[in-house]
Amino acid sequence: MKSSGLTTLVTAVIAVISLSEVSYAEQVFADKKSLGGALFFDVNLSINRNQSCATCHSPAHGFVDNRDNEFSKAVSIGSDGVSIGDRNAPTAAYAHLIPPFAKNMQGEYVGGQFHDGRANGLSQQAEGPPLNPGEMAMPSKEIVLERLLANPQYVDSFKKLFNDNVLNDASSAYEAMAASIALFEKSAIFSPFDSKYDRYLKGEYQMTAPEQLGETIFFSQQFSNCNVCHQLKKLPGSTGETFSNYQYHNIGVPKNMQVRHANGLGDSYVDRGLYENPLVNSEEHIGKFKVPSLRNVAVTGPFMHNGVFKDLKTVVLFYDKYNSRKNSRQINPETLDTWQEPEISQNIALDLLKAKALTDQRIDALVAFMKTLTDQRFEHLID
Questions:
Q1: Best CA proximity match to 233, nearest among 222, 224, 246
Q2: Directed axis angle between helix 170-184 and helix 141-149, to 10°?
Q3: Are residues 261 and 128 in the same domain?
Q4: Residue 111 domain-assigned?
């Protein structure tokens, strides 16, 4: 954040928030990050000039799609006003810290963007939505280039920051656009590490008793398995923790039938998760999805890859159903009915889900702790 242009942009993002009111003066395009910021908010990069990256990754709401819709924000509606997605828009916060898609030393898939890791990094991810018919729905890279050329500031900035010929070819222009957006997403406003938890580690915040209990439960495998998947650093209490190891698992999430009926995919459609990634061909990965970061989790619901659960406490209860013998734990509090069957019953990670049953107090404590992972500027969004 050494650029005065980026500082101007950060101030605008935090203070103004409204996409239509953000004004980008010429100095904003002083570097590629600043250019990427302008592109991130530019609705002209969608077919009907009504959506930008920030529409589904709002900087006012934890970088997720907070627009009210009939699906309780579980999925997004495209620029055409008709297309309905099938997966929940993941937060763009802390996304630049996700490693590239690859296999680790144990032969397990790790990292990548999107719920199935099909984009190797932020730049490749940024190339997806503008041309996706169900999202920004631009017909081609050539039409995207036409929109870029219509903005004199873009023309001057691309030539200055890349090269004089970058806008002579639709593919090179598109790649430069995505690369700029990716650089913007690496700026500090996306990953400030200034939550109550971060301040607690610095001695600047005193946790409440429920928050402290929740921290103990979270990091102790004696009480839960939370940190088996939601801890990246070797030691609890490490700075810069993103609360995900970015591996892939099937935890038995049910279908979101409200969404399936609305988007036309219907009862028979099955989202195979990681198996949909073109680089994955083994059936042992059917039904697996990437472990999400828990940063800002209290303000970025609904939850799971399909937004099927509305409340954070419901998510904790969903995990506990695998371990508790209480009849009440077999009831989804949001539907007042038994938990739905998993969308895909094979490959469920029962070894990771096995833990001690949680008391009501400990469930509430875990929720209280996860609320402390909220960036400071989003704390007012916590219920």
A1: 246
A2: 70
A3: no
A4: no
Cα 188 to Cα 360: distance, rounded to the nearest angstrom: 37
Final residue of a structural domain among 155, 190, 225: 190
Whether residue 200 sits in one domain with residue 159 = no
pLDDT category of residue 234 using cuts at 50, 70 and 90? very high
Cis-peptide, bond into residue 302, ω within 30° of zero? yes
What gap in Å lies between CA 267 and CA 264, rounded to an integer? 9
Q: Provide the strand spans (E) within 42-179.
A: 102-103, 109-110
Lowest mean pLDDT among 25-29, 245-249, 257-261, 363-367: 25-29
> How far is the CA of 10 from the CAs of 122, 152, 378, in angstroms?
19, 23, 15
98 within domain boundaries: no
Beta strand 109-110 pairing with 331-332? unpaired
Give me the domain span that covers residue 155: 4-93+122-190
Does pTM top 0.85 for this prediction?
yes
